[in-house]
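COMPLEX REQUEST
Ligand: 1,1-dimethyl-prolinium
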Amino acid sequence: MMKTWKRVGIAAGLSLSLVLAACGAEEDEDTTEEASEETEENVADEGSEDEAAGNVGEEVDYTITGIDAGAGVMAAAEQALEDYELEDWSVQPSSSAAMTSALDDAIANEEPIIVTGWNPHWKFAVHDLKYFEDPEGSFGEAEDIHTLVRNGLEEDMPEAYQVLDNFHWEGEDMEEVMLEVNEGTEPEEAARTWVDDNEDMVSEWTDGVEEVDGEQITLAFVAWDSEIASTNVVATVLSDLGYEVETNSMEAPIMFGAVAENEADAMVAAWLPATHEQYYNDYEGEFEDLGANLEGAKIGLVVPEYVEADSIEDLQQ
Ligand code: PBE
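STATUS: Structure written out below.
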């Protein structure tokens, strides 16, 4: 467990310095002026301003900056390339942390970038961003995040089952934890602070649940910023009840497989109905779906506000 958190901590620390660099550039008027002069020069080199604005494809090398290949938003982005007939485009896989670093870098340099995005996410609080419109619906509608547990958990660990069944919060709650982690706090510590600051909500999840004596429970998750937040909060609440909690980070399809095959006890990271539809269907019947722990999540292509294009359709040219 420590290893995973250390890695995440390093990634969070790295993106923090990039965020600071970005803020510095935004706040410093001289730098901004210099940067816009540079942009004008570039525009002059390339032709008219309109042409440059319309050339977001060329500027980003016809590449969408993605995250881990197993993420549902990656499959949806590939689907979008098909739906909008963007044959020259590709989706570049990386990781949740590398994507936000690339986004921070691009914004610091006022360069265009298109990323696979989602919310809840801290990046909307830190940067001026927008979703590309998606008239074809490649990225689906608003989604819910579900809690899935292994079959038999209710019988084996009724206390944990009850907490997992009760776990429910809002996008703003998740973003609060995410923001703190992005600012450099260790995920476990950020979760601790949130749990301590939100006793009323947490006591609804643990209402009438008896304490246990060091029973082992394993939560599976993927190291997406949103799921680092939710998994740590649930782990903190369970450990306060007396559980010995292990959190295991893995690829998305493996996370579903782990719960289906009883290698993990639970996960709080199933985005439905569309994002994880494939994985959900692959293992249906081999897990218990405890329903939504968060409503109104969303995925799509995200760009800085200053990118002139507004819709995925605008990439067709
Ligand atoms: N995400 C965050 C995940 C689900 C949670 C949107 C990156 C995905 O695309 O699978």
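REMARKS: The first strand starts at residue 63 and ends at 65. The beta strands are 63-65, 90-92, 115-119, 129-131, 143-150, 216-221, 244-249, 266-272, 287-304.
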